Every structure is written in C-alpha cells, then in structure tokens.
TrEMBL record:
Naturally occurring in which organism (per UniProt): Nonomuraea fuscirosea
Protein name in the entry: Dihydrofolate reductase
Entries under InterPro entries matching the protein: DHFR-like_dom_sf, RibDG_C
Gene Ontology MF terms: 5-amino-6-(5-phosphoribosylamino)uracil reductase activity
Pfam families: RibD_C (PF01872)
Length: 193
C-alpha cells in the first residue's frame, strides 16, 4: 500500500486561499521558471522545483479532494489535474447532473469511504489528499502519513486554512525535504505516530 500525502501550496501564514476562494500568487511558482513541468509546457518552474515536483507527481495514483474544490474547478472539465489517473471527491451530494459516468472521478460519502476507494484505486502508488477541510479531517482521523507544503512568500491574513478546522494537536517529524525554488519553499514532514 502506498503512502498518503496531504498537499497544497500555502501562504506563510497558513492559508490555501483567501476568504473569497482566490489563490492569488500561490501558484505563480508554477510559471516563473524555464523548465517545463509537463508535456503541455504551460507549467514552467525552476530546476530545483522540477527536480522535486516531477517525481512527486509521477508517484501519485489518486487525489482526494472535497466537493468545494471540485465545484470551484468545475470538476477540472472531467480530466484529473497533473496527469493523475483518478480523483475521489468527498461529498454528501450525488455527482453533478449530466456528469459523464466514464470520467475517472469517484464520489464518496465521507473521509473513510473516500480513503478506502482511493487506496483501492492507487494500489502501491501515493494517495494525495488536498489540504483544507478534507485534508484536516483525514489528518485528525490518523489517515495521513506525510504533510507536503509548497510555501509561498505571501501573507493572506485570513482565508481558507491549510489544515481546515482540525482541532487538537498533531505532531510532525522534522522536515525530511527542504528545497528552495523560485518564490517557493518545498517542505515535507512525516506525521508522528
């Protein structure tokens, strides 16, 4: 079974979006370099960010996201982002009306059901959990192995928190990945058990 990694780009004060769900400069690091991150050539990063991000993307088998993110992105047009094979959406609502049942998206009622489906689909590959409320719920439930952050030098002051509304203290190990890119610091922490 592969590991579970909670991930997002995040402001230095811990937000993945502002109060209006705008990400501002959080993803500018994906376009401020000269090394293409994928075949499309749309994302270009520094060599340091490429050397970290490309292998990470290649290990992801499934991404778990909340219904809010799914709705904000309009379901990524039915195509999972970054070449990922499947997306599991945590939701208490059915799939959108007219949604293509052949699209590689799976709708699960709650974090436990979402994780079970994601592990089934991912096999030995990594399950990525989008940070925010769903990620915080997964962390609180003890389902997350690592926390990955792309920390961007911006202060939002308020907004959508990286860990959502997670309550209680959760200890992480010292970072085992610390890589500086252009306008981003890539960090990874193992969750202390």
């Amino acid at each position: 079974m592969g590991k579970v990694v909670m991930y997002s780009s995040v402001s230095v004060d811990g937000f993945i979006a502002d109060r209006n769900d705008q990400v501002g400069p959080l993803f500018e690091w994906l376009s401020n370099g000269d090394v293409p991150l994928d075949e499309s050539g749309q994302a270009k990063v520094s060599q340091a960010s490429y050397d970290y991000t490309r292998p990470y993307w290649d290990e992801i088998g499934v991404t778990i996201a909340g219904r809010h993110v799914f709705d904000l992105t309009d379901g990524w047009g039915g195509q999972p982002p970054s070449g990922i094979a499947h997306v599991v959406v945590v939701t208490h609502r059915p799939s959108p009306e007219g949604w293509d049942p052949e699209a590689p998206f799976h709708f699960a009622d709650g974090v436990a059901a979402a994780m079970a489906k994601a592990r089934e689909l991912a096999g030995e590959r990594t399950v990525e959990v989008a940070a925010g409320d769903v990620g915080g719920q997964m962390l609180a439930a003890g389902l997350v192995d690592e926390v990955a952050m792309d920390v961007v030098p911006v202060v939002f002051g308020s907004g959508k928190r990286y860990f959502g509304s997670v309550g209680g203290q959760h200890l992480l190990e010292d970072p085992h990945v610390v890589i500086q890119g252009n306008r981003v610091l890539h960090l990874r922490y193992r969750v202390r058990r």
